Automatic annotation (TrEMBL):
Keywords: DNA-binding, Transcription, Transcription regulation
Pfam families for the chain: LacI, Peripla_BP_3
Organism annotation: Pseudarthrobacter humi
Name assigned to this protein: LacI family transcriptional regulator
Residue intervals passing through the bilayer: none
Keyword Transcription regulation listed: yes
Length: 338
């Protein structure tokens, strides 16, 4: 029911007028009923029911300190890697009664920092994927609002980490087994911790196995960067490449085909993430498969544990998600030496 004689929804002031009490008393009776006399409370509740009163969500947020919303920040919403992550967070948040606020931070630390600051006013917590902030800035942000980072490991910030470094070593062993001894890592952005960790793991594994691995790049994590990556790989004289992500790898396949370089006969290419479409390439892409949607769900569970510590279930500061290599048609035997 609307307020008498108006077209607007009923407010606590309408209830207060009917019951002959202050609006603040109505607010207490509806939000913290134990603080109001039982008979007064009954009158207020009856009036609220008669007027079909619905609490204003913004006012409720101001009084309770909760908004019922969680911010999810991703560096590039057009990157298919984040499709599954966003779906995982969305489904898990919906099941818990929260609304997801999605923000594209445009691969920019400035945009990300601004978004975090704004979300402090409109969200109960945030999940930030592949943060481009410095360690110090991310830690400072986590001190101001409940946060879980995905694919960013900073002590003091709860995190879900997809273990791609171990899969990078699997990719190296796969290429060595095919006879490749000159291999390149097509690096991602300089601000990407994941790229740095993969290279560190790959370089250590290569030294242990006695093979040559070169780091080329950095390259933006987009399909368009694949052309420059492919040209750099050909110029370097390697016979196989491990790309920072599937988008770069897919762009490399396109460029190598344009140049008449056969994959995998002349060059083998390995991607990372196993995004939608990786198996539709020509040839289908060998890649490191990550449990992306599950990572989103786990991140939400970790955040909710911070927001509702009395609900039980414990609180984790770090969750490591296993990965594995999926072999397809883009890798093959090393070409015979001339």
């Amino acid at each position: 029911m609307q307020a008498a004689g108006t077209d607007r929804p009923a407010t606590i002031h309408d209830i207060a007028a009917i019951c002959g009490v202050a609006a603040s008393t109505v607010s207490r009776a509806l939000s913290t009923p134990d603080r109001v006399n039982i008979r007064t409370r009954a009158r207020i509740q009856a009036a609220a029911a008669e007027l079909n009163y619905t609490p204003n969500s913004q006012a409720k947020a101001l009084s309770s300190g909760r908004t019922g919303a969680v911010g999810v920040l991703v560096p590039d919403i057009t990157n298919p890697f984040y499709f599954d992550l966003i779906r995982g967070t969305q489904l898990q948040l919906k099941a818990a009664g929260y609304t997801q606020l999605l923000v594209d931070t445009e691969e920019s630390d400035e945009v990300e920092a601004s978004a975090v600051e704004q979300l402090r006013k409109s969200a109960d917590g945030i999940i930030v994927a592949a943060s481009r902030l410095s360690d110090e800035a991310l830690l400072a942000a986590a001190a101001k609002i409940p946060m879980v980072a995905v694919n960013r490991d900073v002590p003091g910030v709860p995190a879900v980490v997809i273990d791609t470094p171990s899969a990078t070593s699997q990719a190296l062993d796969h290429l060595i087994s095919l006879g490749h001894l000159r291999i390149a890592y097509m690096a991602g952005p300089l601000t990407s911790q994941s790229s740095t960790l993969r290279w560190t793991a790959l370089a250590a594994a290569a030294e242990d196995r006695g093979v040559e691995v070169r780091r080329l790049g950095p390259f933006a994590p987009k399909t368009q960067s694949g052309a420059a990556a492919a040209d750099a790989a050909v110029h370097s004289g390697v016979t196989a490449c491990i790309a920072f992500n599937d988008l770069i790898a897919i762009g490399m396949l396109q460029r190598l085909r344009e140049r008449g370089i056969r994959v995998p006969e002349d060059m083998s290419v390995v991607g990372c993430d196993d995004i939608f479409g990786a198996d539709f390439c020509n040839p289908p892409l060998t890649t490191m498969t990550s449990p992306i949607e599950q990572a989103g769900r786990v991140a939400v569970s970790m955040l909710l544990a911070q927001l509702n510590p009395l609900a039980g279930g414990g609180s984790r500061s770090r969750s490591l998600m296993p990965t594995h290599l999926t072999v397809r048609g883009s890798t093959g035997a090393a070409p015979a030496a001339l």
